């Protein structure tokens, strides 16, 4: 999840907040590391002294992927003792790259692979994954988890919802079309970067074969709750209708078919550039806070732990929706009240709330 | 200058403080860009489609080098239209790499080269220049300005001064020996990184043929003033003698002979690894604030502008010298008082104060 400036939260909430709030994203990656290790196992990797380059696109603070990256690069090192490894962490310029380096180089409490893998060079890049990040033909393994749903810009406001999963008709079509354009462009840039034989491991938020998506599976829909409380605050006059209309998650959740389309259609530029789907599956990973709640049964405790995991990535969207004529303090107060209200709802009626992760896991190879 | 966490200062002082305070360092690089362009001109650069990699080691916020890097990379692009360019900014993990990316990618007021050079890939690394930063044999041009005087650790306290330029006898010998070890190690790591035919452009703080060094040339020695005021505060009981002893700039200023030694001695590991001096000269670049003062003659204005350029890189050293048993607030107050006293001295008797830059400029090639 890429939209958060970690240090803002660290400063506001104290160290550890971000890692704790994104523990579910870590589970997603840890659980799917096997898909990458299998993909590595399937291919002959020459121990020929050339660079092996891996990217982690949309890395945030690098903490959620650190164990997965360590397992993957250890496997590469075991297969190819002679190859220098370049590990490139990418996110937007405002990301806290200092925190990435502190995590990876072992200056925080996190366990890190960096000291146990020889001939390893760690880099950061702030080039958007909507553009080419590394030179053409230099990439062995491009990885991105829970990031590529961010689109370059909002195609049009959504009149009836804050997220495209609630959009209908022509609005939904416009968002889906924007999602398709950005997805094709994302894959084309990656295909340019890849060496022949190289591969992508993309764990994307999406809509699975049963129509499920993030936070929709517990019984109470997270995005519908986001939308309803925001509109309640408009109805009460705390915010304006124009602000509600301006609040749109700049994200498209794609269906499995939409993910596959450019890879399966021999006429698509992605297919023609040589990218193929090697493995596609969807999985639901349960919300760790809802699982904890089943065990401890304390609704207030659940609400306190649950809201930060939503807030860690959604808060910037609500702040951005508010009028720039409001002071920063005023905007912060409104958003505090908003999440306070969401927390109170969960504490009052906890059952059904859960941010279960719904991902489409793809391994793609360049022929 | 590498020791400052930019955003601490930005937060304390407001945006622009750092760039303004380091304008002299920018002059040093702008004035010496010709040395790098000449070195490029001297060598045949094949337009063969392979990567061209440049590093800027100890980059701080990337702002001081941005014009120089733009001129150099534009020259590379003109000579070699087919070669992807990797530009790698390096500093310590605590550096504000987000600010580096914002500057280079054009998100601040700074003019940047990034959008006018095609097939360019910008990276950051937080690997210390005392270690290998990029894979062996992958570097075309290693650049570092005003950074390599930082040593890995203080060899012993200096009993009579805060900086090794004031040390004598066995203490000075110990610091010079530490400087020699780190310099040889720095050059060995760079030689491993360089391609054959690749080169280094190192603009190092040092001691020139006439014994001059940073801030010693105006009449009033900057480092002696640093030392005297700190001891005055000890004599008055504001700080302790132990704290004065614990205050040591972790820097060695090397003489031209010391810079050249590993490059000229056929028995040295650096020479044997294939590194040679191609051009060595020293230059004094005048303190821009002292030059301004000659024009405007306003002592208080000079003092206000001058102290930040000292403080931007020296403050962490004084903070680190203070006892960890003091609160953070107490330490900040003491250091505020310290620089306030320095400023009052300059305002009262401005003549002779000047942080003239004394650098040794070296171009080294790998055979």
UniProtKB/TrEMBL annotation, chains A, B:
Transmembrane segments: none annotated. The keyword Transferase applies. Pfam families: Methyltransf_7. Keywords: Magnesium, Metal-binding, Methyltransferase, Transferase. This is SAM-dependent methyltransferase. The keyword Metal-binding applies. It comes from the Bacteria. GO terms for biological process: methylation. GO terms for molecular function: metal ion binding; methyltransferase activity.
């Amino acid at each position: 999840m890429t939209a958060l400036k970690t240090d803002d939260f660290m400063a506001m909430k104290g160290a550890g907040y971000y890692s704790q709030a994104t523990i579910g994203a870590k589970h997603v990656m840890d659980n799917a590391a096997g898909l990458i290790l299998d993909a590595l196992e399937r291919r002959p990797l020459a121990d020929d002294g050339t660079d092996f380059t891996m990217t982690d696109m949309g890395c945030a603070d690098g903490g959620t992927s650190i164990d997965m990256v360590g397992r993957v690069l250890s496997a590469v090192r075991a297969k190819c003792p002679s190859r220098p490894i370049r590990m490139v962490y990418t996110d937007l310029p405002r990301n806290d790259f200092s925190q990435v380096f502190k995590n990876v180089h072992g200056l925080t409490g996190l366990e890190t692979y960096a000291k146990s893998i020889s001939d390893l060079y760690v880099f950061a890049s702030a080039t958007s994954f909507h553009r080419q990040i590394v030179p053409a033909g230099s990439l062995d393994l491009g990885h991105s988890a829970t990031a590529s749903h961010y689109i370059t810009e909002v195609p049009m406001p959504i009149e009836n919802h804050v997220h495209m999963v609630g959009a209908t008709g022509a609005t939904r079509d416009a968002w889906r079309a924007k999602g398709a354009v950005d997805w094709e462009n994302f894959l084309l840039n990656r295909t340019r970067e890849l060496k022949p034989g190289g591969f992508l491991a993309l764990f994307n938020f999406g809509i699975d074969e049963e129509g499920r998506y993030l936070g929709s599976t517990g019984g109470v829909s997270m995005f519908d709750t986001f939308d309803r409380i925001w509109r309640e605050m408009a109805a009460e006059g705390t915010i304006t209708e124009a602000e509600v209309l301006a609040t749109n998650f700049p994200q498209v959740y794609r269906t499995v078919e939409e993910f596959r389309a450019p890879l399966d259609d021999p006429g698509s530029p992605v297919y023609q550039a040589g990218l193929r789907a090697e493995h596609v599956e969807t999985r639901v990973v349960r919300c760790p806070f809802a699982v904890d709640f089943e065990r401890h049964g304390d609704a207030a405790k659940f609400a306190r732990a649950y809201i930060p995991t939503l807030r860690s990535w959604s808060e910037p969207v609500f702040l951005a929706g508010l009028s720039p004529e409001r002071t920063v303090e005023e905007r912060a107060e409104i958003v505090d009240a908003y999440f306070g209200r969401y927390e109170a709802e969960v504490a009052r009626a906890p059952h059904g709330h859960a941010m279960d992760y719904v991902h489409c896991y793809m391994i793609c190879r360049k022929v």
